[in-house]
Amino acid sequence: MSTFETVRSILTETLGLGDRGARLTPESGLLGEIPEFDSMAVVGVVAALEERFDILFEDDEINGEVFATVGSLSAAVEAKRAT
């Protein structure tokens, strides 16, 4: 499974998107676009990503730019995995 597919799966499960999760693309917006994606959901998604990919997001790395789209979030995960 690619990083994008795993991130999409985590978003689908964490946010309870059901069938809507399958329609997420790299261009799909997150913050302000998915009603379920609120501040508490960010915490859950970050925790799930850190656990699944064995990475750690610093507080200053959790921002609107990273969480703008599914693609930007996947890219941030890829960058973390590369370091």
How would you sum up this structure in a few lines?
The chain has a single domain, classed as Non-ribosomal Peptide Synthetase Peptidyl Carrier Protein, Chain A (Orthogonal Bundle), CATH 1.10.1200.10. Helices cover 49% and strands 0% of the residues. The protein has helices at residues 3-15, 39-53, 70-82.
Give a verbal description of the structure.
The chain has 83 residues and is mostly helical. The protein has one domain: Non-ribosomal Peptide Synthetase Peptidyl Carrier Protein, Chain A (Orthogonal Bundle). It is 49% helix and 0% strand. It has 3 helices and no strands. The chain starts with a helix and ends with a helix. The mean pLDDT is 95.
